[in-house]
Amino acid sequence: MPSAPKWLFDVVERLMPKLPQLQVSSTEMLSPSLKKIRLVGDVSLLDFREGYYMDFRVTDTDVRRYSPTFIDAQTGMLELLVHLHGNGPGNAFMGALKPGDTVDVAQPRGHKYYDDSVEKYVFFGDETSLAAAMSFYRSFKHNGQQFRFYFELDEENKGVPQLLGLENCVVLRKDGSCTDPKRIGSLSVFQDAGWHDAVFVLTGNVKSVQAFRKALKGVARGKVHTQGYWLEGKKGL
Q1: Listed GO molecular functions (predicted)?
Q2: Could you tell me which of 106, 151, 103, 148 has the C-alpha nearest to residue 127?
Q3: In terms of domains, do 155 and 95 share one?
């Protein structure tokens, strides 16, 4: 429900368990379109898992979803990495946040795609997926799992994975190749049979997710999880 009448969101907020407001402690532009936002406060009531998202009411009538990179109850910190693109209300809200501002937060939710018993993971996404990728990365490293990241990124963002400290990354150009199953099938992970039993987590552009999933048919022996974050022409997916 990306948009709804103001009265409906007001009612939903009154019915939901009230969570403490968080305050923006710092912001940093990692590129012209990627902004890191750190919030501080009482996050002890937030149940966070790898890849979960949070709903933010960005106007009286609009809600948008963003994934934290981590939530740390000990330090009282929550970090977001948001993609600023276009002129929508989500971009206006997140783009304007500055230290000292306060933010209402909702309980994180989503699908449980992460399993610490899995030996290998392959994660695919774009700019909208980098926050989720960071949350998975922390667990991969902590539990000694094998992993590979594939990102389709604009030219201005191709250095961001390295800036974030992500390892085992392949950056793909956002030139339409990731919506072509045949071209996706040429990636090294498809050529290496040792990775065919990995768990695949496919996120980001719906069309790219669909193409990647199609390329995996007859190849992947492990689970394939999909979560499209956006689709051209569709508001607030």
Answers
A1: oxidoreductase activity
A2: 151
A3: no
Amino acid at 127: E
Are 99 and 140 members of one domain? no
Nearest Cα to Cα of residue 67 among 122, 117, 25, 126: 126
CA distance 41 to 27: 16
**pLDDT per position as a tens digit, 9-57:** 888 888 888 888 999 999 999 999 999 999 999 999 999 999 999 999 9
Neighbour count for residue 232 (Cβ, 10 Å):
8
CATH of the domain at 43: 2.40.30.10
Amino acid at the residue 71: I
Distance, CA of 77 to CA of 73 (rounded, Å): 7
Asked if the model's pLDDT at residue 237 lies above 70, the reply is no
Report CA Rg, the chain.
18
Q: What is the pTM of this model?
A: 0.93
From the number of C-beta atoms within 10 Å of its C-beta (0-12, 13-18, 19+), residue 184 rates as buried
Whether the CB-CB separation of 69 and 135 falls below 8 Å is answered with yes
Query: What CA–CA distance (Å, rounded) separates 210 from 215?
Result: 9
